[in-house]
Amino acid sequence: MEDKPGGFSGSREWIGSVEVALVLDQLFDVPGRIVHTRSGRELEEVFDKLKTHFDQTGCPVMMGGDLDASSKGVFGTCQTSSEKYFLIVDPHFVKTDACETDSADLVEAGWAKWVNLDGFSGSSFYNLCLPQIKSDALNQE
Hints:
The protein is α+β, with helices and mostly antiparallel strands. It is built from four helices and six strands, in the order αβαβββαββα. The protein is 26% helix and 26% strand. The two termini are 31 Å apart.
């Protein structure tokens, strides 16, 4: 893809949401829309964009930050009268033959959880990659 130095390939360096968008586009012809917030406090401003994305595509969102460097898969939104949440699934989960994977077990083990927007770092920027699934791909189901 030539966006990284030659030594990056095969290294243990991380990629972020921008690189995820490049990979999805180049390998699968699925462009990714990057939504940037300067801090976790600004996630409230993009909440409706994510809700619309999920309503229209059902496609997960990759989320990463700088100081909050733990990558996250965002799989949904929830809003009460006073709070807003993202459904976060840890993308590092790997199913093994010995592990159960029903939703209750994943929640209990911390692999999936609703996170209040207040729970994101106010000191970290966040990039969110919203895959732009083509409408004909949605109609093939």
